[in-house]
Here is the input.
Amino acid sequence: MQPTKIDILILGAGPAGTSLALMLLKRAPHLKVRIVEKSDFSREKTGETLPPQIKDLMEPLGIFEQFQQEGHLPAHGTSVVWGADLLQENNFLLQTNSPGWRIDKNRFNWFLIREAEKQGAQINMDAHAKFTGKIQSLFHFLLTSNAGVEESLQASFVVDATGRSASFAAQMGARKVRFDNLTGIWRFYQLSNGNCGVETLVEACATGWWYSASMPGNKLVVAYMTDSDLAPEQQLRQGGWEHQLNSAPRTQKRLKKTEGAGELKFWPAASQCLDAFCGEAWIAVGDAAGTFDPLSSQGVFKAMKSGIFGAYAALDYLDGKTNALEKYEQLVRREFENYLEIRSKFYQKEQRWSQSPFWQRRQDWVTLDPFSMLVAVENSVPENSQRNYLLSAKERAFILKTCTCASPAKDIVAAFQASALSYKSNRNIILGLQFLLQKNILKQVS
Here is the structure.
């Protein structure tokens, strides 16, 4: 089988992968770009709200005018019940001169795919790309279509846009760092006639929070966000969903405008990131690199922005700029650290259920005395190498090495800032130290 040689292989045709392809071909139309997507995007997905600022990403890609013709619903803001039993409005019109959009996610994905194809990207949907090795700077893949047709590919550069599975990055040795165990349970309701303009509502409850909004097709999507151990699937399917709705009266009231419900569906929604966003001639973008809490309403926006930054990094790398991927890593790393800060502040605004496990897990206050002397516990049990919590394996190893002899907490923070790990915020370093103390991996000494 004669191999097909391409410049860049993008694994995944979601917003991150297609935006990356669009920017690549906008700046370097001579490149041979292939996108391989394992699904056919026929599976029903929750809707999503795009902020008005999505225009700033679409215009450089040359697709904003086409997007406006897609018929997605306008979104004028979000109502929230958070921190108090009071409905608060967050209106986009107070921030910009235009609304956002509530999109049909699958229809939006297909829109981006069509636009990427127009620019010259070759796309294989419902196909599997098996990595078979790297020989003389070329990545080798065996591409198999749903019909069983095989093709051998050789790529100079690979982009992992496979979503939170980050399947190619994992093969390259990257590991996930998880920050919570959030999960989403959702279903569609059919809105009755005349009730298609239901704006977005976020409503906190004792065990998590609820999201609801109308979507194209006269549908209302309702999602319950909680931790995976607090939402047994069997219990929710056997009446637990309706029981939980009792804790969200404003969300429950919306169901009076509906005529029937779809099946309950579950999806992982934990905040996580990779301990390595790139390597020699490869990068991870979008949810493969890191996932944000749906509370941020940044899913598609973040994915497209990541894809655009990834395109710049790939082009610079192929142009011989050896530090291009390092700069990309630092940029994405700092953005994720900033996200963690914002996420923490928002969750800490809700204090009504301080004894609830869901909210206790998100009340990550700094309590460590900066002069506390910390030392590594000998023979401590390592975490699962496939997934660490709060700290990457590299960050954890750095702390344990620094704490071979007793060190003040403030000196450990200073050591971070003087190292290649300086992207990590002081607050998140301290939270990591507190986590290791809780897990008896570090101990305080006098």
Summary: The domain at 182-268 is CATH 3.30.9.100 (D-Amino Acid Oxidase; Chain A, domain 2). The chain has three domains: 4-72+101-177+272-347, 182-268, 365-445.
